[in-house]
Amino acid sequence: MDAAHRPAMSPVAAWVVSLAATVASTYALDAVAAATGAGLVASGMLGDLGHRSVVAFLLVSYAAWAFGLRAGLRANGNLLAATGTSSNVLSKLAYDLTRRRCGAGSAARLAAAVAYTGTEIAKEVPYYLAAFGAAAATDAITTDEALIFLGGANLGAALYEGALARLTRTVVGRGHASFDTDWVPAEYLTDYYRTVEPDEIATIAFLVDAMRHAEPDQPVLYFGTGPTLHHVFACAETASEIHLGDYLPENLAEIQRWIERAPGAHDWRPFVRYTLRCEGNPCPTDAEVTAREDLTRAKITTIVRVDARHPRPLDRSYPTVVSAYCADSATGDRATWELFMRHITGLVQPGGLFLTAALRRCRGYTVGGKTFPGADIDEGDLRAALRPHFTPLREGVEVVPTDQHGAHGYAGILLCGARRAHPAGTLRCG
Ligand SMILES: C[S@@+](CC[C@H](N)C(=O)[O-])C[C@H]1O[C@@H](n2cnc3c(N)ncnc32)[C@H](O)[C@@H]1O
C-alpha cells in the first residue's frame, strides 16, 4: 500500500506507537552504532592507517551516514503521511504542529525532516564524549582509535538508517511508489495521455453516454481528476459549473496551466475530438474542438485540493460526481479503497448521479517507471461498495478488457454509473 493512503490510526494510538518506536529505535541505533565502532577498533583492521587516512575514513563515514539519513528522512516522511506515526517523536511533533498550520504538504514534511535530522545530530554527541573522553582518560586508547570508533559508529548508523528505511518502505508501501514523494504529473501525462488509449476510448464513450443521466445546469464535481482534463470535456455542455478536485497541488497546478494556456501545457485536443465523436459528431472540425475547450475553460469555476481519507472531503454535496481511477488507483489496500469510496460517494446528493471508472484486478500501475498501488478490485467489489446507497444505471458495472498489461500493468477496466437513493420516507418531485 502506498505511503499516502493508509487509514489514519487514532491520534492517541499514533503517539503511543511513535513513542514506543522512538525508544526501540534509539536503543537499536545505539547498539548497532556502538558495536560497529567498537568492533572496528577491536579488529585492528584500520590500526595501521596513518592519521591522515584515519581522518579521511572518518569523512567518508560521515558521507555514508548522510546517505543513510537521507533514506531515513524519506521513509519517515512517508510513514508520517501514511500513518501519522514516526520512529522519532520530535519529528512527529514538528510534523503535526506544522500540518495543523499549513496542511500535510511539503512544509510539514520539511519540519519533520529538520526535527529528525536535529535529533540524529544530537545523538552523535555521546559518541564524541565517549570516544575522546576515553582517549583523554587512558593511554590505552589513542586519538586515531577514537576517530576509527567514530567512523565505525557512523557506518553502523548508516546501515541502521538504511535498514530502517527499507523496513518502513515495506510496511508502508509494500514497495509501491508514493503520491507524496514520487508522483510527477508530467510523467503521468507522457505515459498515458499522448494518444487516446484503449481504456480511455471506453471511458470517454461511457462518460459521454452516462452524462445524459446527469441533471442539467447543475455543478459537476470531478474527484481525483489528477493533472488531467480528458474526462471533463464530456460534461461541459451539461454542467452549470465544473469543480475539479485532487489530492496533489502539483496536479491542480498542471490543470491551471492548461486553463491559462501556459506554454507547454498538455494538449488535450485529441481527447476533445474523440469526446465530440462520441457525442455523435463524426468529424469534428478544429473550430469545434477549440469551442469545446473554451466552453470547458469557462465552466471550470473551482479547483480544490481534496483528500479521500477525510470522511467529508468537501463541505458540500453535488447532484453529479465523477471519480475515475481515483480510489482504486490511490491505494493497494482493499479496506482503504472501500473507505475512500464511502467518502467520495458521500459527496453525491440524494437522487444524484455517481460515475466511476476503475482499473480491474490491478495491484499496481506504472508511471515514470515507478509502480503506484492498485486496489485489485473487480466488478463484484464495486457493486458491493455501491450497494447500500446506490442503484447502478441500466448497464450495471461494465467490464472492458483493454489489454494494456504490458504497457501499464492492467488488462481491464470497470465502468459504472449509479444513482444515489433518497433517504427512506422523503418526498420526491418529478
Ligand atoms: C491514477 S491517477 C488518476 C487521475 C485521473 N482521474 C485520470 O483518470 O487520469 C490517481 C489520482 O488519485 C489522486 N489521489 C491519490 N490519493 C488521493 C487522496 N487521498 N484523495 C484524493 N485523490 C487522491 C492522485 O493525486 C491522482 O491524481
UniProtKB/TrEMBL annotation:
Q: Decide whether keyword Methyltransferase is in the record.
A: yes
* UniProt GO BP: methylation
| Family annotation (Pfam families) | NNMT_PNMT_TEMT
Q: Which Gene3D superfamilies match?
A: Vaccinia Virus protein VP39
SUPFAM superfamilies in the record = S-adenosyl-L-methionine-dependent methyltransferases
Q: Does the keyword Aminoacyl-tRNA synthetase apply?
A: no
Listed GO MF terms: N-methyltransferase activity
Tree of life domain: Bacteria
List residues traversing the bilayer. Answer: 52-69
Family annotation (InterPro entries):
NNMT_TEMT_trans, SAM-dep_methyltransferase, SAM-dependent_MTases_sf
Q: Which keywords does the record carry? A: Membrane, Methyltransferase, S-adenosyl-L-methionine, Transferase, Transmembrane, Transmembrane helix
A GO CC annotation given for this chain: cytosol
Q: This protein is called what? A: NNMT/PNMT/TEMT family protein
